[in-house]
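Write out structure tokens for POTRA domain-containing protein.
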Amino acid sequence: GEVEFEGNTKLLKSVVRGGMKQNKKHGVFAWITGKDVFKQNKISEDIAGIKERYREHGYMEATVGEPRIEEITKRTVLFKKQKMKKIIIPVNAGYRYTVGEVKIEGNKILSAKGLRRLIKFKEGDVYSTKIREKSIEEIGEIYRNIGYIRSAVYPVEKLDPKRKRVNVTFNIIEGDVVYLNRIEFKGNTFTKDKVIRREMLIREGDRFSLAMFKDSILRMSQLGLIEPVGEPDIR
């Protein structure tokens, strides 16, 4: 059907519409994938997606009202007239927030200065939850590559409504270093496991590195020794 937004939208409607994953505007791709079929029970998911899309662009207090549903007649991509649903969604974007104070806490193994380089926004930039998540992923990857595969990063955001800033703290739980105990290959009928192990860049007993482990899988696959099926089971 159709999707329209009314009110103080601020962002391009095509950008806002991108936050909707369930109810899509009628078009060729949406028609082929069946995404243009109206799903009343999925409206709440789309509202949450719209709110998150605004947060990705700095509108931390954006509100989305209760959608209205109307019935319309429109030509389809096959040029046939058809009754469709039109979803009208009231939106108030509010004010755009910028990045305020950025702190890192809980780190012991890696320096705050080094970790700060992995955070993709700086004070004064438009705040973005998408960039925040990208930063968390990069910090986590660094830890996983030096053996701390159970580390976790938790962001704590504090809004400053007066200055329209977001002060954010990245709390890091490093956990303990993990060593590679045993490598097992299931379904291997091509050669002996010890032959495959020789091609691993990481050995049993070494400090675990997710990057080296992935590179090993890629290397063995390129050599034709294995054909990975699904993700490795790392315990």
